[in-house]
User: Fold this.
Amino acid sequence: MNSNHEGGFHPGSTLFLGLSKSIGMALDQTNFVVSQIVLLLFAFILRTQLHPSKTKGTTRHWFELIVGLLAGLFCFGRHILHIFVMPGICYIVMSKVDPKPMPRIVLAISLIYLSILHLYRQIYDYGSSNVDITGPIMVVTQKITCLAFSLHDGKTKSEEEMNRNQKLEAIKETPSLLEYFSYCLSFQTFMAGPSVSFKTYIDFIKGKNTAISMAKKTDNGLTKEPSPLFAVLCKVLTAAACGSIFLVVGGYFPISSLKEQQFLDDSITYKFGYMYLCLLICRLKYYFAWMFADAICNNSGLGFNGYTEDGTEKWDGVSNIDIFKFETGTNLKETIDAWNIRTNIWLRTVAYERAQKYPTLMTFALSALWHGFYPGYYITFASGALFTAAARIGRRHIRHFFLKTNELKAFYDVLTFIITRLVIIYITFSFVLLEFGPSLQIYMSLYWCLHILGVVLLALGPFIIPKPNRPNQRNPGNVNVNQIENTLRQVGPITNSSS
Assistant:
């Protein structure tokens, strides 16, 4: 997190400049951490003092908007104007344009605006880890495009024409300016996500959210709402641990060291081990941002997701990351599904389910544009596409050999855990490294080993390892377009640069 600049690429407040120097953290990142701590307190106020049973929805909207605006001004200064300009243009389109073409126009405007900011940063602040306005704009892009398609569904489709999720999220009337901008700047999700749907947000404001609707009656007849305090404490402590480890250890494993000749000349075993440590440390900053944002949401009453079978409360309704599943997943799909969860949902809602032709290609293109234009992103996405498809082929044609005994199954789980970790290392280092040339150099030093294995498995696996015969099962032989689409649609949200 060290940086030789003071204000960051998009300068905000200098109030904590002394603190940032004393702890060796860039001012923009110090401001981000301070803002998250303060927003955690404001979330508590919203849940308790401004509870829907005590406060009108209008008051809660203004609270969301003002607190979010102040947080934005503190972190990004004058560049907070971007949060009004781009959504403002899109709001005019939502209000005035025919609802049939409207969502695609909103999608185009938001992506063009976001792309300009990405390119500007890439030109003038290449490869930095500064906290700048592009992060919030990425989240707002998800919000307003989902809202645009929800309006499209509500105004142009019958219930028979919509799938289950579209029915739940459909909106028949354009929101007011206050509702719209309080949604865009809602302080729980403004800084680092997660993106939530407009319907979820409005239900939360009005007190129709799950935490209130699933309140239980106590023995004395009073209504007791689920309490997020334990979940908030766990998530804050997890975030603090991740942030602290990153600060202490991060400097010992810089991602730039992957470009050094000494690393390139070492053994493949060493390369994978060292890259694992580098990428694990890099992930800690995402874990910090997403876990703290999740805690803020929960502390405001947002994110309750019902009860487990034993009655335990679940507060993962808006979670963006499942750290345990990501770090211990035994297959690529399970691991990817646990990363950047809300972006996965956005890509499916806006692109995959909407595309009339080539849904996988459309989803891939949207994810790529949303992330930006660093070459390393595209290397990761392309590699991820290959390995997601190959992993599904391998699972379908190999897994059944290891299900005969518990010992074989345990061995298979350990083996796939190791393979999944190697693949995650292999496909994601370029996303963090960003650069095209150095990424190719590393792959050459690894002899493109996993790429070759992936291509061989994808091309020849179905023919040399027959799939077990089971009743009512499709022909296992060929890798068809539908099969590849089902696998590739998971590639989009492998990584996220919004934090």
